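Q: Sequence in, structure out?
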Amino acid sequence: MAGVAATHRNLSALHRALGETLPRAVHPGAWWGWALSLAVVASLTTNPLIHLLLIAVLTLVVTARRGDSPFARALRYYVFLGVFVIAVRVVLHVLVGLKFGSVELIRLPTIDLPSWAAGIVLGGTIYLEGLLRAVAEGLRLATIIICVGAANALANPKRLLRAFPAALHDIGTALVVAVSVAPQLAESVVRVMRARRLRGDHRTGLRGLKHIAIPVLHDTLERSIHLAASMDSRGYGRRDASDPRSERVTTALTFAGLILAMLGLYGVFVTVGFSLWSWPLLAAGLALSYAGLRRAGRAVRRTAYRPDPWRAPEWLTLGCGLVAVAAILLTRRLSPEGLILPLEPLGWPALPLLTLAGLLVATVPAFLTPEPRTSRTAPRTREAVV
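A: Exactly. Output:
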């Protein structure tokens, strides 16, 4: 008990050092940076142990720091989507995948295809090694999807729209609408099913699906129309009159910056002999892109009411994600064999200690960030209600 009390005192002291004593929402950009960092970690490995640990880290942080908005309950649907992706990847491997390995599982009949589909074989012998590779690749994509779902559950997309630069406001609006489709659809399904149960309709399966689909689509369409009307009333999509010459200069700066940045990234990640010019090209491309975005932002007039602050907890959250990325990059350089699933010969995957330490650091936001403001943590005083 003494040890637990001491730990609690230490965490409280650290919270005071961070300057956070009241519940508040962490900046959505910090949560998205943290989640995308973990998505980068997932994309650099096919080790299923690392992917499962990543999913555990995401679940822990989301459970500890999500709010009570409809978006906060979206993670489970992304998990279902990830499971569906793994199943599809396995089915594709069984049907048309590359069959290799030595441990035979099952023999399926082979179907001959026309000459224009030479090289593709339907069916054939399924080996354990090939099946495991398909599962590992599907798990990698599923983990990336769950990372996006975790960011969507931790950061309300509508709050993320306020943090977008003025020049990217239209793109940000499209991204927010696209990302919020799954939570809104899930909320519509829950609301329609609750209404059906209140009316005494308990049909499930395919019989109940046809009674749910039309109300859900109608509800989603109605909410989309209300959202479009509210955004139009607030001036979204409206721009001031601008000079065509200025627009051409802005487009040229942005396009040239993107081309130079692309060449610089190509030199950094692909071509070794091009590395001397890679960083200058990348820096020049980023500078030109920034100049173009600044010019484009002047044509958009908008304000943010009570913008989300960026303080120590936000830097802590983003830094923990970057530490995980740095850990897996070091592992990839020092012992890359720990990041792959051994198939030839077949063996149990290793768990690199450096990557494990980076994933442990990624769990820190679950404990050292302010608790989100929910109905449970909201002030109960009369002044707060007023």
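The two ends are 41 Å apart (CA to CA).
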